[in-house]
Design goal:
single chain, six-stranded mixed sheet
Length: 94
């Protein structure tokens, strides 16, 4: 099952990494169109467990990958693609 991430929520304050500011990710399933919202940790577990999540910008599809900061915080980010802009962090607020 693949999901397209459509929006994010971020909290304020200082973060060691801008991706760790993401608290929730809104998504829509490719099959059936079901929508939902997951925490950063839930999306990390989904991707780490083999689920596919991505951000679609025009024709470009950037896949989410699981990552961990040096301090041990789990998060997701987009895999590098042909654009220099950050596909995930540029999404609108949910």
């Amino acid at each position: 099952m693949a999901v397209r991430v459509t929006c994010i929520n971020k909290d304020g304050g200082y973060h060691e990494n801008p991706y760790t500011a993401i608290t929730y990710l809104g998504w829509v399933k490719d099959s059936g169109g079901e929508t939902g919202k997951s925490t950063r940790l839930e999306m990390y577990d989904f991707v780490k467990g083999g689920g596919e999540a991505y951000v679609q910008v025009g024709a470009a599809r950037a896949v989410l990958i699981a990552a961990i900061t040096p301090g041990g915080t789990k998060y997701v980010k987009t895999q590098a693609d042909s654009t220099t802009k950050d596909n995930l962090l540029k999404l609108p607020e949910c």
